[in-house]
Predict the structure.
Amino acid sequence: MIKNIVFDLGKVLLNFKPLEYLSKKISDEKSIREINEAIFKSPEWLMLDRGTITENEAIDRICERNKENSELIKAVMDDWYQMLTPIDEIVDLLIKIKDKGYSSYYLSNFHQLAFENVTRSYEFFKCFDGGIVSYRVGLLKPEKEIYEKLATAYGIRPKETIFIDDTLENILAAKSLGFEAIHFTGVDDLRDSLSEYNVI
């Protein structure tokens, strides 16, 4: 019997579209690709998720490695949080799930300052009974220990829990630990999958 629903945040409950965001700030396609690679594909991005580096340290390192684009990098990093906007249809599903009496949690790879920003900005975080965010525990999905942290912290039994994530590797890791799991590819498919579990 399903009792718990666990949500990833980025690309599930919150929009995260770096190329779309960069295209609003930069007109040149080549520069958009370069800045995307320099920031969002950098080793520092994962270090921020893991909580082993500060945002200022990350900016300094990325700029040092990409001196020709350093001013653009600083400008992008100054307000990139603005792309983290709620995906309203999924927020509505979260609210319905809570109203039906299920416990809801988040499990997400996320930076400290970005997480503080979104939790301060968006009311839907009040729907959660708790959650684990990567920078706080020094772990990243799909490392099995981060799923185990969630289960231990909240007394969650994996077989009673559906985990929702947009990254297949994370889904496979959850399944290997006994969680039910839904690979998020869009709101309609998610509704259908949750209906099959009789959750909605």
